[in-house]
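Q: I have 389 residues here and want to know how they pack in 3D. Can you give me a structure?
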Amino acid sequence: MDIRKIFEAISLELSAKFQKTIQIKHNGGKGDNRENAFVDFLKEYLPNKYGIGRGEVISPENEISGELDIVIFDKDHCPLFLKSDSHSLYPRESVFGAISMKSHLDSDELKDAYKNIASLKKVMSTQDFTDSFAPGMVTGLSPVVPVTAIFAYAANRSLEAIAKQVNDLDKELDNINLRPDFVVVLGLGIVGPNGRIRNNFNMYNLPNDYDNLSLLRATGRHTLLRFYMQLLDELNSITQPKLNLHSYFNMPSRVGEHKVRNHDQLIIRFDGEEKKSVRRLTLAAIDKIIQNSKMVTLKEHFINHLGRLPLDAEEMYDLSTFVYEYNPMNKPPIQILLNENGRPVADVNTFQPLQVEIDGNKYAIDANSINKDDFEENPDFTVTELMSQ
């Protein structure tokens, strides 16, 4: 049996299906048929643990990738937040790789595909994590860098010209890790490293020089086989972190151009209202808070808020981190008073901060320096629903 002959025949079948799509006049129809042929190949030849779909990838920080032609995901363990044949939404912890599909790989198409691949890699976590592969053993792992490729059925130029443009595009990147792993032209060859990129513990090790990154391999009729072998080798080297669905439920919301967390589940009753309701800060309020907040260290914030450092604060916190305080009236640290029933209440004339996250920064917002106009009703929750969480 000759594996090369088998994949050569598959390659000819894909090329034939591509030629059929040329007869379809509608661009969308061409793209769907072109991708479907390659999707069918991947579904048939990749192990069952790998699902194949199309759509966007989302992070717990509410960052979303561009539209990806082919997404390779873990269908055994991770759910899809939105599922359809034409578009799905994948949590980043489920994603093993992505492929940008092209008919003819001209200069503009290659640039566009580079941006598309970078949009995926930018939403992936950059944090190390741990996993337990055996009882009593915990292993440290590097963050996942998904396997990425640009796959074209044909090109209107030489592989040498493509390799040169790949080299130029790599040099334009602020972060070389955002590049696609491979650029593949069916029946022509592969541009990219010829050795393993991912090693043990998810380590992602690109060659140090640009020439090896854009290495030209004129694999001809054996291109599909060589790409398949390298793709599967890289996919099988990845260990994914566990999916924490709670982090997605509590992801920051997009408010205008901002990403905001903990601003939209506030149970409030203003004077004159019969009952409490769930409210959220408006975009205008968020802009006002950002413009009028002062950056202080966490140590300074404790003193501004409590009048002193909490017990064992040096051991429990990194006091050099920053907090943005919204305290426009420069109220003094919080004071506790007793009401007519002898119950403790906070003095409204002192600094009583709400903790909100805006664009990844921690904000401490004096609760009595924002008013009814700074809020709007939040239809996503009722008081009962919030109290039942």
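Q: Anything worth noting?
A: The longest strand covers residues 95-104. The chain has eleven helices and 21 strands.
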